[in-house]
Design goal:
mainly alpha, 3 helices, elongated
């Protein structure tokens, strides 16, 4: 259920942020092709990152509980770290694949 919500949030925010980034990039005088590719990179990165955040929000507390740790105390640190690392590498990886 969390993954579905993350996916739906990802799609919604991807459409909004992708459109804004594409319009902003186009307003700088860039070609339409470059602006569309930038919008796709940002949109795809948003979807992947929000789905990963939903998965981490489910799996990290379960893993901590299984390991004998209190998930209420330490899961937020791990979920934030996972989300940041995934977002960083997904965005840069997609940008390298699509824009370079």
């Amino acid at each position: 259920r969390e993954t579905i919500v993350g996916g739906l949030n990802g799609i919604l925010f991807a459409l909004i942020m992708g459109a804004l980034a594409g319009l902003w990039h186009a307003s700088t005088g860039a070609s339409v092709d470059q602006s569309v590719r930038l919008a796709v990179v940002i949109g795809a990165a948003m979807i992947i990152n929000l789905v990963a955040a939903g998965l981490a929000g489910i799996l990290v507390p379960l893993g901590l509980q299984r390991a004998g740790a209190d998930p209420a105390v330490s899961s937020s640190v791990f979920v934030t770290t996972v989300t940041d690392v995934v977002g960083f590498f997904v965005f840069l990886g997609l940008a390298a694949l699509v824009l370079l």
